[in-house]
Each structure stands twice: as C-alpha cells, then as structure tokens.
Write a structure and sequence with these properties.
The protein has 15 helices and no strands. By secondary structure, the chain is mostly helical. It has a single domain, classed as Growth Hormone, Chain: A (Up-down Bundle). Helix 1 runs antiparallel to helix 2, helix 4 packs antiparallel against helix 13 and helix 11 packs antiparallel against helix 12.
C-alpha cells in the first residue's frame, strides 16, 4: 500500500493531488447535470451529442497552441488563470438555470468557452505533474492522478443525482464553481521553481511544428497517439449516450445514471491502483494493448445489455480498460519526451484523447438518432476493436 501512494510524499504533488480531487469531483457533478439538462430541454440524442462536440472542438483546434504556451510560460500561473475562468463559467451556467433562462444555445456557448479554457488547462496540468515530483516517480504520480480522476468520477455523478433530485439542477453547477477554488488554493501554497522549460522566442507556429515533428519522427510515439485517437473517437461514445441508456433502455432515471457513470469510475480506480503498484516499464506496453481490447469488448456487450446490474458490471470493465490504456500511454509519452517539449507532447495527447471526441460524439449522435443508442454504441465498440490492433506492432 505504501508503494501505491509513494508520490504523495512530495509536498507539492500532495497539495495538487488533493486540490484536484475536490475540483474534479465538482467537474463530474456538472458533466452529469449538463447532460441531463440538455436531454430534458431538447429530448434529442443528436443535440446531446452536439454539446460534447462543441465542448471538445476548441481542444481539437487550440490544444497544440496550449502545449507551446505550457512550455514557454510558468505552468503554475497558467493553471491559476484557467481554474479561475472555470469558476466563472460554472457559476454562469448555474445562474442561467436558476433564472430559467437555460436553453440549448447558451449552454452550448458556455460549453464551448469551457472547452477553450481546457485547451490550455489540460496539457499544462498533464505536463505540470513532473514538476511536482522526482521524475523517477512519474509513473506512480500519473497513476495516482488517474486514481483521483476516477474517484471523482464515482463520487461526482452520485452527488449530482442526489443534488438534482433535492435542490435542483442549478445546485450542481454552483457546487462545481466552488470546487475549482480547491486547486487555486493548492497552487498558491505550492513552492519551487516552475519557470518555463523552453526559452525559445520563435513564432508560435514554429513551436507547434517542432512538437509535431518530434512525435511523428518516432514510430512508437506515432502508434501510441494513433491508438489513443481511435479509442477516443469510438471508445468514449458511452459517455455521451449514457443518459439515453439510463432513461430509455434501462429505465433508471438520473440517479441510476449517476451509478452507471460511477461504475466506470470504480473500474478505473482498480486500474489505477494496479498501475500504481505494477505499472513499471516492462508492463506498460502490455497494459496499453490489454486496456484497449477490454474497453472495446465491454462497450459491445453493454450495447446489447438490457440488465441494469449486468450493465454496471460491463462499465466496471470499460473503466478499467480506459484508464489502463490512458495512464500507460501518458507515462510512455512523458518518459520519452525531453523537458522542453513535454507540454507539446501532452498537447498532442490532449488533442487525441479529448479533442478527437467530437468526431465520435457526432457519429454516435447521428447513429443514435437514426437507429437508436444500442446500434450506435455497438458500431463504436466494434470499430475500436477492429482498428486499434493495427497499431499494436509499433508500440
């Protein structure tokens, strides 16, 4: 057990870790509430998917620029700014609901703005981890970060279900707004040298090209990015379609939706604990491949399930697959990237892990609209299962 949590011995990482735990719990509260709100307002699988497209599109467009900024600017200062902007956006969404002004268009605007903030926040946050620890502890720290992300994924949806039922949907957005303050406070108390690692004054475009050239010139890094891209496009469709499965197929309502999404988090926690303990260099590539296959198979079976209990079990397996692949890819990329390019390497990871989801959400939304959510998810899981092994030989 001591080895699993070894990275928490570093004071800066400990502050950052606990701050993120609070903040990410709030983020998951908002994600569940936002999906349910859009479905209730529009009753449209397509528009539900489009919110995900809108929130992820800025990440696709600007995350590579965010990576250059992360390498050239003090990461601690960047994160204080991005977290502060997130406070404002979450509060505005809550106010719209409270004033009964919420509509698809203004929810979409806020989702797009939050996506723009995340285009700079996510690659910076990913690259910042190594500055809070000794590099030899990187694998453990990334695994613990996944553990907190998925602990939040368990706690957040359950909180969202109860808050929405007792206090109304607006309370979920206010809670998320407050939760960002935990990271801001943690960052203020962190000490050390967080100065930029790339002192180059070259134009931004050249910085992006330099990062792209580094990733594309290494066969194993290209393969890791490709596997992540395919999994993000086709393997993440379960998230956008989950409200439909909860309401129309499994008949469990918003509280049941919370438990469905929490099951993914529980499975991911098991994956994170295993990686924190056993995810040394010799196992990382095996974990990438096994996690990818388990994710795809779980989604295929979930698409065909009409049993709530069986669906919960399948999402446990999907959560294990998602985090096992993601942490292993993240670690391999960071370990093989020099310090002055780490922000850009993480921006490419962010681009494919989060920025590619608009394509999957758009495809899933259209298929769900035309043929129903089960067919849409069956297609997505099958595509993931068939395409990702094409890149395994180069990992």
């Amino acid at each position: 057990m001591k080895k699993i949590f070894s990275s928490l011995k570093y004071a800066n990482f400990r502050l950052f870790w606990f701050g993120q735990l609070v903040s990410l719990t709030g983020t998951w509260v908002q994600m569940v509430a936002q999906g349910w709100l859009v479905l209730e307002l529009t009753n449209s699988a397509f528009l539900l998917a489009m919110i995900n497209v809108i929130s992820a599109a800025p990440i696709m467009l600007f995350s590579l620029v965010g990576g250059v900024v992360a390498d050239r600017v003090n990461k601690k200062k960047i994160l204080i700014v991005t977290q502060s902007l997130s406070v404002v956006l979450a509060f505005c969404l809550g106010a719209l609901v409270s004033l009964k002004l919420a509509a698809f268009w203004n929810i979409a605007v806020i989702a797009g703005l939050l996506g723009l903030v995340n285009a700079f926040d996510v690659p910076t946050r990913q690259a910042f981890v190594v500055e809070t620890i000794d590099k030899s502890s990187l694998n453990n720290a990334i695994a613990l970060n996944s553990l907190l992300f998925n602990s939040a994924r368990i706690i957040g949806p359950v909180i969202a279900g109860f808050l929405a039922g007792w206090l109304g949907i607006a309370s979920c957005f206010y809670i998320n707004s407050i939760s960002f303050l935990a990271v801001i406070v943690a960052l203020v108390f962190m000490t050390g040298d967080f100065s930029p690692k790339d002192l180059s004054k070259r134009p931004m475009v050249e910085g992006v090209i330099e990062g792209a050239r580094y990733i594309l010139s290494h066969r194993n890094m290209r393969a890791l990015v490709a596997v992540t891209a395919v999994s993000s496009i086709f393997g993440m469709a379960n998230v956008v379609l989950m409200p439909i499965f909860a309401r129309d197929i499994l008949g469990v309502g918003i509280k049941g939706l919370g438990f469905l999404m929490s099951s993914v988090g529980i499975g991911a926690i098991f994956g994170g604990l295993i990686l924190a303990r056993f995810g040394h260099e010799g196992n990382r590539k095996i974990f990438v491949k096994s996690g990818t296959i388990i994710l795809a198979l779980s989604l295929i079976l979930f698409a065909m399930s009409t049993s709530y209990v069986f669906s919960l079990c399948l999402l446990l397996a999907a959560g294990w697959g998602i985090i096992t692949q993601a942490v292993s890819v993240n670690t391999l990329l960071q370990m093989e990237t020099p310090d002055n390019l780490r922000g850009r390497a993480m921006s490419f990871y962010t681009l494919v892990f989060l920025g590619m989801t608009p394509f999957g959400s758009f495809i899933a939304g259209l298929l769900a609209h035309w043929f129903g959510a089960p067919i849409a998810l069956l297609f997505s899981g099958s595509a993931c299962l068939l395409l990702t092994p094409l890149f395994f030989k180069d990992i």
